Amino acid sequence: MSFFDVVNLWGLLFAALLVAPHVLWFKTHSHDVSGFSNRAMVYIDRTGRFFSVLLMAVNIGVLEKGFPEPKALMERFWLITTAVLIAAYLLCWLLLFKTEKKGAALAVTLISAAIVIFSGIMQVKILLVTAGIVYLIGELYMLNQYFRQNH
């Protein structure tokens, strides 16, 4: 088993692009999680985000089948579609940094979850789809609570 059988380089690139704006946001904005009343949802959000990124970048071999046939066509379709979604995701982040509106934050959340869930469906990774759904649930809760407290 080689390194590239375990690490999905495109998935790693897409995962890094999903995480980078979050890191920049937390560096430039104060974010106190103690203000959230439901700590379980905070941990659900964090767990979903961590496992989404991990499972996009690493092939763990559990509940994974890879791209369906025709493999080359499906992989190309996944790369193009995910690249377009990543571009939309980054544009929504730029909009969120400028305006800090709930609509932009909702777009960021929905597009990021769509990227993760779509990647899981296309690569037949059941755990990635599950992590994407957990991430979506947690992130929607956190988004709602953040805008309820701050705006």
Structure characterization notes:
This protein has 151 residues and is mainly alpha-helical. The protein has one domain (3-28, 36-150). It is built from six helices and no strands. It has helices at residues 3-6, 9-28, 39-57, 71-99, 102-122, 126-150. The chain is globular. The model has no long low-confidence stretch (mean pLDDT 89).
Brief sketch in words of this structure:
The chain is mainly alpha-helical and 151 residues long. The protein has helices spanning 3-6, 9-28, 39-57, 71-99, 102-122, 126-150.
Secondary structure topology:
Blueprint: H1 3-6, H2 9-28, H3 39-57, H4 71-99, H5 102-122, H6 126-150
Helix pairs in contact: 2-3, 2-4, 3-6, 4-5, 5-6
DSSP summary: helix tally: 6
Low-confidence parts: none
SSE class: mainly alpha
Encode the helix/strand succession as letters: HHHHHH
Whole-Å distance between the termini? 51 Å
Report the count of strand segments.
0
Shape annotation:
globular
Radius of gyration computed on alpha carbons: 16 Å
What's the number of structural domains? 1
Q: How many strands, which pairing sense, and closed or not: the largest β-sheet?
A: none
Describe the oligomeric state of these chains in a short phrase: single chain
Mean pLDDT: 89
> What is the strand content?
under 5%
Helix content: over 70%
